[in-house]
Amino acid sequence: MGLPPVPLLLLLLLPALLPARCCEPPEGSAGAVRALSARLLGLAGDPTRDPDPAVYLALRLAREHDPRLEQRYLERLQDAFQRPFGRSLQGHGRSRWDAESSRSAAEPPQTGRLALYLLGLQAACPPLSPQRSLVTWLKYYLEEDWTGSRQQGHPITSYYQYGLGVLALCVHRKRVREEVVRRLLTAQHHGKLGHGGNTVDTEAVLALAFTCLERRRLVGTELAAKLRVAAHEASRNMAKAQGPDGIIGNIYSTPWALQVFLATGECQTEPAFGQAVAALLENLEAFGTAATMAQALPVLHGRSYLDIASMRCGEEPDTLTPLDMEPLAEVPGNKKVQLVVECPLPWCYELRLYDRLVPVPAAASLLDVLQAAAALEPRDFRFHTQDTPQGPFLTEVLGLEARQEKRNYWQILTAPSTPLQMGIADYRPQDGETLILRLSEW
């Protein structure tokens, strides 16, 4: 059989002829990345903080380690997860579909959190095989989510959590029904992912899951080809979503986009990769919590969650020392922040429900502003938050609760219309700034 015509041969060889870019961070960034890893290690060593599987994943995907501290953190994670998930779904003569009767009907499946924990077990050294009940629980949650998707057109939790669940099962070489995978492909194709116009995180997680399923040959040949195309389409979408500052979506979704470039190998040829890494390094101060550090660090070490599937336990360098976080400097004086609450949804009796100037200390966070408003006018302003690994999450304002099953959430904007990219406990408004809490749908 002869060679193909010369133009076709050049076309086939073009990717190999293009100058390859290094998928590692720039040489001069090693010190800053190491310091961020050390700060995360310091936070992980604090026994008063709830263990977070994403933090453990970031520690395991790093280039340097503290094996003893990582082992203690893993033991705390096992403690936290074995209690609720260590029992069989078929215990005590109940069917697995009745086993959740003790949970509140309003509580959504814990798909994403359990998925991250299973990824963490695979990242341990040596990898830990999860108890069968853990995999069964995750498959159960995915089935619950799939039922929600069939009845409502979307998962009960979110496509983001659902994608994490599929990725975790794939990394553990567990098959997922092809029907479920095709529903994810359809959701991506029809633009049903995410909310607020920012789908980067969700599309990235699905691309990682698609790439894993295709590479580990856990689906048929025809579906594998479609998954490969979808993953590369997601990579192109990431590049298109990049702003002139190098950020893709927002600063916190940028690490997810970088994971896709790394997992698909397009980090070698895609200019958006280097620009996004540079943007991440320029904005490291935005990653001040354990959860946000855990988002950024894997890609700053040139790793993605797909690397968990092929990690090898060699001689890991025991060279990382925990670094304590420096307390925020005190800022003297006071400031005033305009706090606005809006409900543009058709069932709200009016658009603007609250509009007040709130005096607070100069160093106050947005959470401090909300607490000050509630203290000043307890009858006119009240709110509730939910603790998450990313910090407190705003769930209810003026008695209006954001509910996942209703597909609404409290969007926070700086006037007139810029979405806030930081958590309410981390963002510190400027004097005279107007902040809008808006009940929105996705």
Automatic annotation (TrEMBL):
Example of a GO MF term: metal ion binding
Residues in the signal sequence: 1-22
Disordered: annotated span: 86-108
Keyword Ion transport in record: yes
Bridged cysteine pairs (disulfide): 170-212
Gene name of this polypeptide: TCN2
GO cellular component terms, semicolon-separated: extracellular space
Similarity comment text for this entry: Belongs to the eukaryotic cobalamin transport proteins family.
Chain's role: Primary vitamin B12-binding and transport protein. Delivers cobalamin to cells.
Name by which UniProt lists this protein: Transcobalamin-2
Pfam name, any one: Cobalamin_bind
